[in-house]
Amino acid sequence: MGLMDTIGNLIPQIKKPAKPLSFKDKLKWTAAIMIIYFAMFSTPALGVNITILKQPVLQLINIIFAARTGTLITVGIGPIVLSSIVLQLIQGTGLIKIDLNDPQQKGKFQSIQKMAAIAIAIIESIIFTSTGYVPLANPSFFGIVVLQLTISAIIVIFLDETMVKYGLTSGINLFIAGGVAYSIIGGTVNILVPEAMAALAAGGAGALPAAIEAFGPLFFAIIVMLISIYAYDMKVELPLAFSQLRGIGGRLPIPFLYVSVLPVILATSLIISMTVWFSFLAGAGGSFANVAHFIAFYQKQSTGTGTSTTLVGGLLYLISPNFPLPYSAPYGIGGYGPYVSYLLTASSPLYMPWGGITYIPEWVHIITYTLMLVVLCVIFGTFWIEMTGQSPKHVSEQLQSVGWQIPGFRRDPRVIESVLNKYIPTITVLGSIFVALLAAMATLSGAIGSGMGVLLTVGIMYMLYQQLDRDRMLEGIPALDNFLSN
Description:
Helix content is 62%, strand content 8%. It is mainly alpha-helical. A three-stranded antiparallel beta sheet has the order 2-1-7.
């Protein structure tokens, strides 16, 4: 643990408030942090050519990472999410052994995670700038742009930590929700409304249907929102009894979306990050070219000041939600007709390691991406309940510690665990599959705000509502607040 102690001492920490904050104080901190975030969100990085950004391709990256490519917030929350994934995988494999129930060891773990996030921020800033995802106004601005993106990403890391300790919820949640809201409003006003107006101005018998179709992405976003809200209300409730006082009981709700949308955030972050990380293969040549193109095939495009890369084939393309421009969204290409036709008839190249090319239909790409998203969501969902103390074993121990038991069963954590094992693992898997399928449908439908962003935002707002409800209750019962904090 010596190295962990050394790293922990090097990383600055945001101190917890000396006393519990009131709801109004948390609201003020939240507002201040979001103002700083949106100021960075709206400020273009010096030296970036904003006019030639590949907006449709970058939209999903921006939604998942609460980013806005080309601005100071280009890297977004990617380093925070990815460092969490990497360290939890390492912890889960037993390469490092840390008791996260021990506050001191948990603090050291968080310090290492922060160090990893800073390292990833530096790497991603270099990758985004060098591969053309962030096109430069002049090649000489490379170092300046990387420095701006890195510093801004580090600021976001500390803003998130500040939000966790002083705000209403985690910064990651509100940054994503804020970015999605901006995307939905901006996309509707700047894209959908002009397309509808243009369709009406063209006149003819098809003017009105074309204008209505222009709002298809907004309709799909609303559908995803309604389905998400309905799913969040689904739950299984287990009866509970207080062992010390007869006649006093309650219920343990196990929601259908037991791990919320976290599996989708983690799975999509991993897939999208890989499409950026492997962009170095775009320049592969010689004997390694076939293998590189088999893994991920990128096409280089001139940007006026250099080149940018677009993923158009290979194994990585098959498991990603990417589509080449202009088919990354149904708007801008004439509506859903050309979009669906492309998905049903087009194909992408798969370069074989031993030579030759096989063309894979786009509908196979859609199926492969959906299946991969489902598998990753199930893996991350199952892993997440173990890491966050939501597994049957942890929940049974928590119930036992406060005196709850399931009526008709002995007061034994092993008995409670056996009952919970009939529900929590199954619900976790089913909920993870559901959010994966809904996210894939939302993404492929071209819903405004990426659809997946709407799904994430509904989940975030639901969690925020629960958190606010809990905080208001605890403000009225200080003794209960102190008990839960210890």
